[in-house]
Design brief:
Layout: H1 2-25, H2 29-34, H3 37-71, H4 74-89, H5 92-103, H6 119-143, H7 147-155, H8 160-188, H9 192-197, H10 204-215, H11 217-231, H12 233-242
Length: 247
Protein backbone atom coordinates (compact mmCIF):
# COMPACT_ATOMS: atom_id res chain seq x y z
CA UNK A 1 0.00 0.00 0.00
CA UNK A 2 2.81 2.43 0.79
CA UNK A 3 4.31 1.88 -2.65
CA UNK A 4 0.95 2.76 -4.19
CA UNK A 5 -0.01 5.68 -1.94
CA UNK A 6 3.23 7.68 -2.14
CA UNK A 7 3.41 7.91 -5.98
CA UNK A 8 -0.33 8.60 -6.18
CA UNK A 9 -0.13 11.40 -3.62
CA UNK A 10 2.91 12.90 -5.34
CA UNK A 11 1.13 12.85 -8.71
CA UNK A 12 -1.97 14.49 -7.22
CA UNK A 13 0.15 17.27 -5.66
CA UNK A 14 2.00 17.82 -8.93
CA UNK A 15 -1.28 18.14 -10.84
CA UNK A 16 -2.78 20.50 -8.26
CA UNK A 17 0.23 22.82 -8.10
CA UNK A 18 1.01 22.83 -11.83
CA UNK A 19 -1.21 25.89 -12.59
CA UNK A 20 0.48 27.88 -9.82
CA UNK A 21 3.93 26.97 -11.13
CA UNK A 22 2.95 28.11 -14.63
CA UNK A 23 1.62 31.40 -13.28
CA UNK A 24 4.78 32.01 -11.24
CA UNK A 25 6.80 31.47 -14.41
CA UNK A 26 5.03 34.53 -15.81
CA UNK A 27 5.65 36.64 -12.70
CA UNK A 28 7.50 39.18 -14.82
CA UNK A 29 4.12 40.30 -16.16
CA UNK A 30 3.03 41.54 -12.71
CA UNK A 31 4.87 44.84 -12.96
CA UNK A 32 3.56 45.46 -16.46
CA UNK A 33 0.01 44.99 -15.21
CA UNK A 34 0.49 47.69 -12.58
CA UNK A 35 1.60 50.05 -15.32
CA UNK A 36 -1.62 49.56 -17.29
CA UNK A 37 -4.39 51.86 -15.99
CA UNK A 38 -7.23 49.53 -16.98
CA UNK A 39 -5.65 46.48 -15.38
CA UNK A 40 -4.74 48.34 -12.19
CA UNK A 41 -8.29 49.64 -11.83
CA UNK A 42 -9.59 46.06 -12.23
CA UNK A 43 -7.46 45.02 -9.24
CA UNK A 44 -8.78 47.90 -7.12
CA UNK A 45 -12.36 47.20 -8.18
CA UNK A 46 -12.03 43.51 -7.36
CA UNK A 47 -10.80 44.30 -3.85
CA UNK A 48 -13.43 46.97 -3.15
CA UNK A 49 -16.39 45.03 -4.54
CA UNK A 50 -15.10 41.87 -2.88
CA UNK A 51 -15.05 43.49 0.55
CA UNK A 52 -18.61 44.76 0.05
CA UNK A 53 -19.81 41.36 -1.16
CA UNK A 54 -18.16 39.54 1.73
CA UNK A 55 -19.83 41.96 4.15
CA UNK A 56 -23.22 41.17 2.59
CA UNK A 57 -22.48 37.43 2.81
CA UNK A 58 -21.72 37.74 6.52
CA UNK A 59 -24.69 40.01 7.19
CA UNK A 60 -27.16 37.67 5.48
CA UNK A 61 -25.42 34.33 5.83
CA UNK A 62 -24.86 34.18 9.59
CA UNK A 63 -28.56 34.64 10.51
CA UNK A 64 -29.63 32.22 7.77
CA UNK A 65 -27.16 29.54 8.88
CA UNK A 66 -28.24 30.05 12.49
CA UNK A 67 -31.92 29.71 11.54
CA UNK A 68 -31.30 26.53 9.58
CA UNK A 69 -29.21 24.89 12.29
CA UNK A 70 -30.80 26.05 15.55
CA UNK A 71 -34.39 27.10 14.93
CA UNK A 72 -35.87 24.75 12.30
CA UNK A 73 -37.03 21.21 12.90
CA UNK A 74 -35.07 18.48 11.04
CA UNK A 75 -37.72 18.01 8.30
CA UNK A 76 -37.65 21.73 7.48
CA UNK A 77 -33.87 21.74 7.60
CA UNK A 78 -33.85 19.16 4.81
CA UNK A 79 -36.35 21.18 2.79
CA UNK A 80 -34.40 24.44 3.00
CA UNK A 81 -31.09 22.66 2.67
CA UNK A 82 -32.29 21.16 -0.59
CA UNK A 83 -33.50 24.59 -1.72
CA UNK A 84 -30.01 26.01 -1.12
CA UNK A 85 -28.53 23.41 -3.45
CA UNK A 86 -30.27 25.09 -6.40
CA UNK A 87 -28.30 28.39 -6.33
CA UNK A 88 -25.18 26.51 -5.26
CA UNK A 89 -25.19 24.21 -8.29
CA UNK A 90 -26.83 26.52 -10.81
CA UNK A 91 -24.36 27.42 -13.59
CA UNK A 92 -23.01 30.94 -12.91
CA UNK A 93 -23.81 32.02 -16.45
CA UNK A 94 -27.45 31.11 -15.88
CA UNK A 95 -27.40 33.08 -12.62
CA UNK A 96 -26.06 36.07 -14.55
CA UNK A 97 -28.79 35.79 -17.17
CA UNK A 98 -31.50 35.66 -14.51
CA UNK A 99 -30.05 38.62 -12.62
CA UNK A 100 -29.72 40.61 -15.84
CA UNK A 101 -33.37 39.92 -16.55
CA UNK A 102 -34.44 40.98 -13.04
CA UNK A 103 -32.32 44.12 -12.53
CA UNK A 104 -31.64 45.04 -16.16
CA UNK A 105 -33.34 47.84 -18.09
CA UNK A 106 -35.75 45.45 -19.84
CA UNK A 107 -37.48 44.34 -16.61
CA UNK A 108 -40.16 46.24 -14.65
CA UNK A 109 -37.85 46.32 -11.63
CA UNK A 110 -34.96 47.57 -13.72
CA UNK A 111 -37.02 50.49 -14.96
CA UNK A 112 -36.86 51.92 -11.43
CA UNK A 113 -33.23 51.08 -10.63
CA UNK A 114 -31.09 49.58 -13.36
CA UNK A 115 -28.12 47.79 -11.77
CA UNK A 116 -26.60 46.46 -14.97
CA UNK A 117 -23.01 47.62 -15.53
CA UNK A 118 -22.78 49.21 -12.09
CA UNK A 119 -20.89 48.48 -8.88
CA UNK A 120 -24.17 47.41 -7.30
CA UNK A 121 -24.76 44.91 -10.09
CA UNK A 122 -21.25 43.49 -9.67
CA UNK A 123 -21.73 43.09 -5.91
CA UNK A 124 -25.12 41.45 -6.48
CA UNK A 125 -23.63 38.95 -8.93
CA UNK A 126 -20.75 38.15 -6.56
CA UNK A 127 -23.12 37.66 -3.61
CA UNK A 128 -25.32 35.26 -5.58
CA UNK A 129 -22.30 33.15 -6.48
CA UNK A 130 -20.73 33.13 -2.99
CA UNK A 131 -23.50 33.26 -0.37
CA UNK A 132 -24.50 29.55 -0.60
CA UNK A 133 -20.89 28.52 0.06
CA UNK A 134 -20.77 30.55 3.26
CA UNK A 135 -24.18 29.36 4.47
CA UNK A 136 -23.47 25.67 3.88
CA UNK A 137 -20.11 25.83 5.66
CA UNK A 138 -21.44 27.77 8.67
CA UNK A 139 -24.52 25.57 8.83
CA UNK A 140 -22.40 22.44 8.94
CA UNK A 141 -20.45 23.73 11.93
CA UNK A 142 -23.55 24.89 13.78
CA UNK A 143 -25.22 21.51 13.41
CA UNK A 144 -22.39 19.85 15.33
CA UNK A 145 -23.02 21.91 18.49
CA UNK A 146 -25.40 20.00 20.80
CA UNK A 147 -28.38 21.90 22.15
CA UNK A 148 -27.64 20.52 25.60
CA UNK A 149 -24.84 23.08 25.92
CA UNK A 150 -27.33 25.92 25.63
CA UNK A 151 -29.73 24.27 28.04
CA UNK A 152 -27.01 23.74 30.64
CA UNK A 153 -26.05 27.41 30.50
CA UNK A 154 -29.68 28.52 30.75
CA UNK A 155 -30.05 26.43 33.91
CA UNK A 156 -27.21 28.46 35.38
CA UNK A 157 -29.24 31.63 34.81
CA UNK A 158 -27.39 33.06 31.81
CA UNK A 159 -29.23 35.15 29.21
CA UNK A 160 -29.43 34.11 25.55
CA UNK A 161 -26.86 36.79 24.67
CA UNK A 162 -24.43 35.55 27.33
CA UNK A 163 -24.98 31.99 26.11
CA UNK A 164 -24.13 33.00 22.56
CA UNK A 165 -21.15 35.16 23.50
CA UNK A 166 -19.39 32.87 25.95
CA UNK A 167 -20.45 29.39 24.85
CA UNK A 168 -21.64 29.24 21.25
CA UNK A 169 -19.48 31.90 19.60
CA UNK A 170 -16.12 30.31 20.56
CA UNK A 171 -17.38 27.05 19.04
CA UNK A 172 -18.93 28.43 15.86
CA UNK A 173 -16.46 31.15 14.89
CA UNK A 174 -14.26 28.55 13.19
CA UNK A 175 -17.13 27.63 10.88
CA UNK A 176 -17.83 31.27 10.11
CA UNK A 177 -14.16 31.92 9.37
CA UNK A 178 -13.83 28.93 7.02
CA UNK A 179 -17.11 29.91 5.36
CA UNK A 180 -15.81 33.46 4.87
CA UNK A 181 -12.62 32.08 3.31
CA UNK A 182 -14.60 29.99 0.82
CA UNK A 183 -16.93 32.89 0.06
CA UNK A 184 -14.01 35.26 -0.56
CA UNK A 185 -12.36 32.86 -2.99
CA UNK A 186 -15.67 32.51 -4.83
CA UNK A 187 -16.28 36.28 -4.83
CA UNK A 188 -12.90 37.20 -6.28
CA UNK A 189 -13.08 34.47 -8.93
CA UNK A 190 -16.70 35.11 -9.94
CA UNK A 191 -16.94 35.32 -13.72
CA UNK A 192 -20.13 33.78 -15.11
CA UNK A 193 -22.62 36.12 -13.44
CA UNK A 194 -20.52 39.33 -13.51
CA UNK A 195 -19.71 38.99 -17.22
CA UNK A 196 -23.45 39.23 -17.94
CA UNK A 197 -24.60 41.67 -15.24
CA UNK A 198 -21.56 43.92 -14.86
CA UNK A 199 -19.24 43.70 -17.85
CA UNK A 200 -18.43 47.29 -16.91
CA UNK A 201 -17.04 48.17 -14.42
CA UNK A 202 -14.58 45.40 -15.15
CA UNK A 203 -13.36 43.19 -12.29
CA UNK A 204 -10.31 40.93 -12.58
CA UNK A 205 -11.94 37.75 -13.99
CA UNK A 206 -13.65 39.70 -16.78
CA UNK A 207 -10.48 41.75 -17.35
CA UNK A 208 -8.54 38.50 -17.81
CA UNK A 209 -11.07 37.36 -20.39
CA UNK A 210 -10.77 40.66 -22.26
CA UNK A 211 -6.98 40.46 -22.11
CA UNK A 212 -7.07 36.92 -23.47
CA UNK A 213 -9.21 37.98 -26.41
CA UNK A 214 -7.26 41.12 -27.27
CA UNK A 215 -3.62 40.26 -26.50
CA UNK A 216 -3.46 36.49 -26.20
CA UNK A 217 -2.65 33.94 -23.55
CA UNK A 218 0.80 35.18 -22.34
CA UNK A 219 -0.58 38.65 -21.51
CA UNK A 220 -3.59 37.17 -19.72
CA UNK A 221 -1.40 34.97 -17.51
CA UNK A 222 0.20 38.00 -15.88
CA UNK A 223 -3.20 39.37 -14.90
CA UNK A 224 -4.26 35.90 -13.77
CA UNK A 225 -1.36 35.88 -11.32
CA UNK A 226 -2.76 39.07 -9.81
CA UNK A 227 -6.09 37.31 -9.36
CA UNK A 228 -4.29 34.62 -7.35
CA UNK A 229 -2.47 37.25 -5.28
CA UNK A 230 -5.75 38.97 -4.48
CA UNK A 231 -7.77 35.85 -3.74
CA UNK A 232 -5.41 33.65 -1.72
CA UNK A 233 -4.11 35.67 1.28
CA UNK A 234 -7.41 35.90 3.18
CA UNK A 235 -8.43 32.23 2.76
CA UNK A 236 -4.92 31.03 3.60
CA UNK A 237 -4.78 33.17 6.74
CA UNK A 238 -8.27 32.16 7.93
CA UNK A 239 -7.58 28.47 7.33
CA UNK A 240 -4.22 28.73 9.10
CA UNK A 241 -5.78 30.64 11.98
CA UNK A 242 -8.88 28.55 12.57
CA UNK A 243 -8.66 25.14 10.89
CA UNK A 244 -6.37 23.74 13.61
CA UNK A 245 -8.50 25.00 16.50
CA UNK A 246 -9.93 22.16 18.55
CA UNK A 247 -13.69 22.31 18.77
Amino acid sequence: MRRLIAPGAALALAILFLPLVILLAHAGQVGRVLGAPGDASAIVLTLSSGILSLGVDLLLGMPLAWLLARRLAPPWQRVWGTALVVPLLMPPLVVGLVLAYVVGPASPLGSFFDLSNTLGGLVLAQVYESLPYFVYTAWGYLRTIPRSLEEDVWVLGKTPWETFRFVLWPLVRTGFAIGAAMAWARIVGAFGAPVVVAYHPTALPVAIWIQLQEQGLPAALGLALWLILVSLPLPIWLNWRYSHVER
